[in-house]
Amino acid sequence: MLQWFIANIGSIFVCLVLLAAVSLIVRSLIRQKKQGKTSCGCGCGCAHCAMRGSCHSH
Description:
It is a single chain. The chain is mainly α. About 65% of the residues lie in helices and about 0% in strands. The longest helix has 27 residues. The chain is rod-shaped. The termini are far apart. The mean pLDDT is about 80.
């Protein structure tokens, strides 16, 4: 078991870093949604968007 761990330590580390990054992104998106700060996805607002009338209910 220890030999397998040592042989794969690089892959394990990369997977843990990626898992942490994805977790932080999901956490951030959930917080934004709870605070009502989400937009259509582009992040630039709806003023000049062609879909502004159908994207959000006013």
